[in-house]
Design goal:
Distance between the termini: 137 Å
Oligomer: single chain
Largest sheet: 5 strands, antiparallel
Strand content: 35-45%
Number of helices: 3
Radius of gyration: 36 Å
Number of strands: 17
Length: about 280
């Protein structure tokens, strides 16, 4: 619907038709909101019922990123994409000289995002291994110290560059996560972390599930096996088993004493009666 909202405070000039989006839809991205005094209604008609949306709930430019990372952007104004406003000059109240309006930068940034020239993520070179060893396909043992690394890159102005973020997590999952840690990046976009394998064996996954507004959804799983200790890998004496050791040795001692008494004890015969 028409709104005749002319944006000048941010240096973006255009007349918009307002939009309203479902606030509970996680796929919708609010790119440009209207001012607090804006409303959406036809300027040639009387307002007889509540407008579609008012204030900051009115969207002037909205985007959507689908679950397959496809992107769509909806502008409330054809004028914003015109050559006239794209190359327009603006003058602030405090200045007497004209300067380039914000349309060029804003439209270019939104178009780059929609065409995945910005905000596109990819991963490569997933590695995992025991600390101090080379990567291999062998199963891990419970309580092993392991390392996990993954290289993440982002599309920035049409070129791949190392991704930098401190909120990327990896999970060690067997149905439910047993370990969840933040990955630490370096300048080359190589994210690493070290942790101890839980004292539970089975089939696990290293899982990276990164979903951040403005970026494509990054999802990676790597399956590994975790085995228990072999019978030759346990400690010779386990402190928690000392009571059982004591009971076993006490039983052995009791059998030895009983055997000695049974074999070498001789009942004394009573003296014969004499008349």
């Amino acid at each position: 619907e028409e709104s005749n909202e002319r944006i000048t405070s941010s240096g973006i000039n255009a007349e918009y038709g307002g939009m309203a989006a479902d606030s509970e839809n996680p796929l919708v991205i609010d790119i440009l909101r209207a001012s607090d005094t804006a409303y959406s209604h036809s300027p040639d008609q009387d307002i007889l019922e509540y407008p579609l949306a008012i204030g900051s709930s009115l969207l002037l430019v909205a985007g959507m990123q689908a679950r397959n990372n496809a992107r769509v952007v909806v502008f409330g104004s054809h004028d914003m994409l015109s050559d006239k406003l794209y190359n327009a000059q603006a003058q602030t109240v405090a200045s007497t000289t004209s300067q380039e309006a914000g349309n060029r930068g804003f439209v270019s940034a939104v178009a780059d995002w929609a065409l995945k020239r910005n905000g596109d993520l990819r991963f490569s070179a997933i590695k995992h291994n025991k600390v101090g060893e080379e990567p291999s396909d062998a199963a891990y043992r419970i309580t092993d110290d392991v390392e996990y690394s993954i290289i993440i890159e982002e599309m920035r102005s049409g070129k791949w560059a190392p991704f930098q973020a401190k909120d990327v997590q990896v999970e060690f999952v067997r149905i439910d996560p047993f370990v969840r840690l933040f990955l630490v990046p370096d300048s080359a976009g190589n994210f690493k972390v070290s942790f101890k394998v839980p004292d539970v064996y089975g089939v696990f996954q290293f899982k990276v599930d990164y979903d951040r507004t403005g970026y494509t959804h990054l999802f990676s799983t790597t399956q590994v096996s975790v085995r228990p200790f072999r019978h030759t890998e346990y400690e010779r004496f386990i402190p928690s088993a000392y009571p059982y050791y004591a009971s076993a040795f006490s039983m052995m001692g009791g059998v030895i004493v009983f055997s000695f008494l049974f074999l070498y004890h001789k009942d004394t015969k009573p003296a014969a009666k004499t008349e």
